[in-house]
What we know:
Layout: H1 24-47, H2 58-64, H3 76-87, H4 109-121, H5 132-149, E1 156-160, H6 163-180, H7 186-189, E2 197-201, H8 207-215, E3 222-223, H9 234-243, E4 248-254, H10 266-275, E5 279-283, E6 308-312, E7 324-328, H11 331-338, H12 367-401, E8 406-408, E9 416-421, H13 424-437, E10 443-447, E11 450-456, H14 464-480
Parallel strand pairs: 2-3, 2-4, 4-5, 5-6
Antiparallel strand pairs: 1-7, 6-7, 8-9, 9-11, 10-11
Helix pairs in contact: 1-3, 4-12, 5-12, 6-8, 6-11, 9-10, 12-14
Amino acid sequence: xxxxxxxxxxxxxxxxxxxxxxxxxxxxxxxxxxxxxxxxxxxxxxxxxxxxxxxxxxxxxxxxxxxxxxxxxxxxxxxxxxxxxxxxxxxxxxxxxxxxxxxxxxxxxxxxxxxxxxxxxxxxxxxxxxxxxxxxxxxxxxxxxxxxxxxxxxxxxxxxxxxxxxxxxxxxxxxxxxxxxxxxxxxxxxxxxxxxxxxxxxxxxxxxxxxxxxxxxxxxxxxxxxxxxxxxxxxxxxxxxxxxxxxxxxxxxxxxxxxxxxxxxxxxxxxxxxxxxxxxxxxxxxxxxxxxxxxxxxxxxxxxxxxxxxxxxxxxxxxxxxxxxxxxxxxxxxxxxxxxxxxxxxxxxxxxxxxxxxxxxxxxxxxxxxxxxxxxxxxxxxxxxxxxxxxxxxxxxxxxxxxxxxxxxxxxxxxxxxxxxxxxxxxxxxxxxxxxxxxxxxxxxxxxxxxxxxxxxxxxxxxxxxxxxxxxxxxxxxxxxxxx
Length: 484
């Protein structure tokens, strides 16, 4: 039988192969997975060369969807075929080596394949007792991360959905800890009756930290200044801390500014915060990975002296989405703030459970993809990955510098490049031209009072050829727009 997408599916017992598939349900599962595999491979084979621009918008997708919820059932394979046919025009080739938007990376083959297995295994990785395989893999992945990033062994590691949720997990822990240091238990009394809280950050604090602070009840951070590249103003931090020494204070630092790629001076800033009795959290969504490279580890000097850290494995490490990492030096503080227990859950053991380190009871085994990526890459492979991303950013900056009328505004310290013309309108037009032309996708933004086109290098496939094609596309765009 053929459906409206052209796909065929069985309508009688004779169409179900018997060997190895004893039931109709088994046959349907195999057909659905075969269809998904076929569409996935076709997509992945096309990503590197297909135009990155979208073929339609969300209204186009809604117009193609049958919005009626029918009474009749459909075969799983037919649904997968329909899904792929309707969705593809609205899929952006974010895995392209010339996609530079949002710092989202690509997917290492081992991590992508592991992610498929995670979905197939369908393990609710909240407790070690019913899911020992995935919990054990995550524990090893967490220990490897601490080792690679030079963070204290024995720190609590939680696998969250992304940088926002990882920052949230860390800031909730920080909030409770600084209040507990002043003799107050927020878990029973809430925040309204507790001591005064302060949340301090540099002027370039990322929006995910701002959001996490709001959700954690800290409010928007009080900013203390920053230099031209976005690094926190340490004297400003010192003055802010001295102005209210009795407050319970959390300080957020940054490993990798989203525009410049700059890193805060951790050694000095952390010492200043420590002297004031503050908790120090580091947002290292993509930049914390610099610690894994001997060439860039100096950018993170002193970062291990902080109290908590957040990063995103789907950025620099290149695992699939849904894999933030929350790390807290004091694991007991982390589990005290985030752990939840009930009579129906397995009894508390000497070792904390996965759900004690993230704000979720039910979740997929997202840390398994980290294990797979690290197992495949090894220490040297991770360093090479980091070095390759930074090298590509430097090569982009060098290439852009040769294009008349354009300039790179930031010091290219790591993986970010901000490009601009002398006129904001032309800069914005260049970003629009690139996204419409389709060879390259880069974000338009505003930095230091100027419009910029921001290139965030985070895909392991961004090699010399991708760099050359990117520079060529920017040069063609500048010429087409009369930028000189």
